[in-house]
Design a protein that fits this description.
The protein has helices at residues 5-17, 25-44, 51-61, 68-75, 79-91, 113-133, 139-153; strands at 95-100, 103-111. Helix 3 packs across helix 5 (79-91) and helix 4 (68-75) crosses helix 5. The chain has one domain (24-153): Winged helix-like DNA-binding domain superfamily/Winged helix DNA-binding domain (Arc Repressor Mutant, subunit A, Orthogonal Bundle). The longest helix has 21 residues, at 113-133. 65% of the residues lie in helices and 10% in strands. The chain contains 7 helices and 2 strands. The protein is mainly alpha-helical. It has a two-stranded antiparallel ribbon with strand order 1-2.
Length: 156
């Protein structure tokens, strides 16, 4: 029986998986991240969001009341990227910039009622996408993975 293009691609992927790069921890983290971002963006598309804009919305929907600088540092994004994300969400009426009570020179980013409502719906979609992507992992393994990733993401 002739091989299909997907069979050929799968065979090549299997061969590459056995390479030194295919077992490199940093590469595996990057590949897992790419798959996760792709699944997240697909789940968020119906809400007009992507993973980065959802991250800003999610953080602004909580009680933390982050500044744009906080968002930039936590999300590991250039400040100009955060400004663009906040601008986009603000234009849609999902977040507001408000003066930071602790520092008048800074603004905190706060989700509006509409933003909080959209966040709840979008968060459910991202959780479903995550369950699908991580479906091969048992709950205890997911907790171990989350703990290990947290140790890398938040050293010290």
């Amino acid at each position: 029986m002739p091989r299909t293009p997907s069979d050929t691609a799968r065979a090549a992927s299997d061969r590459l998986r056995e390479s030194d790069l295919g077992t490199d921890v940093s590469f595996l983290l990057a590949r897992a991240n790419a798959l996760s971002v792709s699944a997240g963006n697909a789940a968020l598309a119906p809400f007009g969001l992507k993973v980065r804009s959802f991250s800003v919305l999610a953080l602004s929907a909580g009680e933390v009341r982050p500044t744009q600088r906080d968002l930039s540092e936590f999300l590991r994004l250039d400040p100009s990227q955060v400004v663009a994300l906040v601008d986009e969400l603000e234009k849609r009426g999902l977040v507001e910039r408000r003066p930071d009570p602790a520092d008048r020179r800074a603004n905190v980013v706060v989700a509006t009622e509409e933003g909080r409502s959209l966040h709840v719906q979008a968060a459910a979609a991202t959780r479903a996408a995550e369950r699908s992507l991580h479906g091969d992992l048992a709950a205890p393994d997911r907790r171990v993975l989350a703990d290990l990733l947290a140790r890398i993401a938040y050293p010290g």
